[in-house]
Specification:
- The structure holds two protein chains of two kinds.
- Chain A has helices at 3-29, 36-41, 130-143, and strands at residues 30-34, 48-55, 61-63, 68-74, 79-85, 97-104, 110-117.
- Chain A is an alpha+beta fold.
- Chain A has a five-stranded mixed barrel.
- In chain A, strand 3 and strand 4 (68-74) form a beta hairpin.
- Chain A is elongated, with a radius of gyration of 24 Å.
- Chain B contains 19 helices and eleven strands.
- Chain B has helices at residues 2-30, 33-62, 69-74, 81-86, 92-114, 122-141, 167-182, 184-196, 202-232, 243-268, 272-295, 310-330, 347-379, 387-407, 418-441, 447-476, 481-491, 493-518, 622-640; strands at residues 383-385, 520-527, 531-534, 537-548, 553-563, 566-571, 574-577, 585-587, 589-591, 596-605, 611-620.
- In chain B, strands 3, 4, 5, 6, 7 and 8 form a six-stranded antiparallel sheet that branches. Chain B has a four-stranded antiparallel sheet with strand order 2-11-10-9.
- In chain B, 52% of the residues are buried.
- Classes of the chains: A alpha+beta, B alpha+beta.
Chain lengths: 148, 647
Amino acid sequence: MSHRGKFLLGGAVILGALGYLVYAGVSQSVVYFVTPSELQAQPVPGKAYRLGGLVAPGSLKWEARSLDLSFVLSDGKTSVPVRHKGTPPDLFAEGRGAVVEGTWSGEGYFKASLIMAKHSEEYKAPHGNEAQAGYKELLNTLKGPGTR
Amino acid sequence: MTAEIGYAMTAVALGLALYGSAACAIGARTNRPVLIQSAQHAAIGTFVLIVAAMLLLVYAFLTFDFSVRYVAINTNRGTPFYYRITALWGALEGSIILWSAMLSLYTLLIIVRYRSRQAEFYPWVLSVMLGILTFFLLVMTIPAPPFERLAPIPPDGRGLNPLLEDTGMITHPVALYLGFTGFTVPFAFAMAALITGRTGDEWMRVTRRWTIVAWYFLSLGLLIGGWWSYHVLGWGGYWAWDPVENAAFMPWLTGTAFLHSVMIQERRHILKLWNLTLIILTFGLTIFGTFLTRSGILSSVHSFTQGSIGAFFLGFIALVLLGAFGLVAARGDRLRAEGKLDSIVSRESAFLLNNLFLVAAAFTVFFGTIFPLLSEAIRGVKVSVGAPFFNLVNIPIFLALIFLMGVGPLIAWRRASRDNLRRNFLAPVGAGILAAGVFRLLGVANALALTCLSLVVFVAATIVLDFYRATGARLRTGERLLPAMGGLLMRQNRRYGGFVVHLGILVVALGVTGSQAWSIQTETTLRRGEALQIGQYNVRFDGLAASEESNHFKVTGTFTVANNGRALAVMTPAKKFYPQEQTPIAAVDYLMGLREDLYLVLGDFARDGSQATVKVQLNRFVTLIWIGGFILTLGAALAILPEPRKT
């Protein structure tokens, strides 16, 4: 075999291996976005999803000591119970949108490894709104007796 | 008035750049030096105007001139002094000014250095650079004007994105953009070579050091970006495969490939087409990177801005690629190799493999970055491609690259004899295998970590061996040890600068491996006085305090840390509440160490300060990444120094 042939063959083998890596990477690691309805239609246990919906009012429970977080994500038609271990992000609240990443447990709930609260991009007036009042109150509480 | 003056300056600069670009081209075609002279003046005028516009904008920031929309959005009366200056590049419009300023600075340097040299290339280089500058000035004039007027004038501005209030963000964009725009120089020379038909090695020799300068700044920018991510974002990582990180990483990968493959062309006169392709891709990726970062096409932690400039950028990228590859096609007959590859076991093929892997890495990063966009646009399916994909695909590629880093510099050109292989590689391979065994006995069980450690030792051994032999040769001529070593570094600064860069990369690789394999973390809610244990550290929560800063409120936790029972430090992670932001920003506190960093992030807390949730991480060997990065930049700086004349 000529040198040129060897080089081409070697290059083809390497490119093939890289192509396979990319293919394997995509099929293993790409995470699909689903709504609660889509997930409930055919949940595959162990497969990674990103699940988006509204945090159903009255469903949010967080145990600060054990860091057990549970809530229900709903898209208006179907809902999915979600469990997570950790602190909820700051914007996370009932009635707000959230996206969680994790897997279907196979036992009737979604096991989330990552929780993302949805930002709204609207412009907020910089001063004199209720957030400001909230911080003031926070300051007063923390400045009060009992803290070091 | 400020807005109008600034706008007028950018508009005039646009006219001058456009004129200069055209005048250069016509002057070169029709052989009229007067036109080139005139274009030179236009280029200098452009530079002065852009710098003046930038200073004007800084002045507007410093004086809280909220009649300028950009100022009103990116600062408020509470923004600290230094961040009012750097707010300049806090968002799209200002970063385009910064980009233009850097590019016109490089253009000025080209004029200073080459106006009476490189007579064939010079006018075309100037023309191409001014042409690219024209594009950015056009962006500044139409879709993203930094001097847009805001009426009515608000009493206060919105404020800078709090994440950008950090020293890392003062330096990161400057370094990154000096890197991005720096690649314009070799690109412009490559285009000049194609236009003039002088497609030999000359354009590469002339731009060799310029390329290293660009590479140096781009590397520095990436490192500072990682450091910023680590100490600001509060997730304890330095690299997230975020699309905008990828945007800066892709040109780094192809630029690194280019730095290596030009050596092959210089020596063997092959790979001409490949080198042109690489520099065109690298330049195209720098523009693409800015497009990704600043067009708001992707939502990510970095994409702070949104705009309607996507079409401008995509159009320009298409123009650049079509124009550049069109020129390549037109000169195809002159790009034939003047030599050939002799053997698979040779330095040429080691470098070729290195190129293949670097470009493959760039391609997979590109693919992973745009896959979600393609998937949504074509199949209508929303997906996300995260770190698992990039790690899975890139770890094997990077391991192979580390291996080649040991092989490439020492293997013989053309065809390596058995003797050459034995002489250069027997000991290092032995050292690598030995290291794997030793680390295994020391308890390293992770196969990936073991492979990486073994490869690092192998490459380090090749570098030490080479340096040892070269020093030995000089000692035999009667030199003393230290002068001999220093002389090697200075006289063969290109070769040994490269070795120092390689050493830096090895140290970074150790840091990445160590932090991925051995970092641990925990998250707990503590009552006041309660403590948690992580590694040998005891972290006790002592309470919360609140304070009012110039532009935000701050809640600070106090944690007393003991190391094996001995008091070590009081750490104060905090949460900052900015009025203009919907969510608080975590202010990380960490103790840096060579072996490990103790990294505290304050989470949720009770309003009476009785308890707080805290995330505690022991990040192992992260400091090696910063040390390796420092070594790497030293090496690059050494390689930039002019090579001493060979006598």
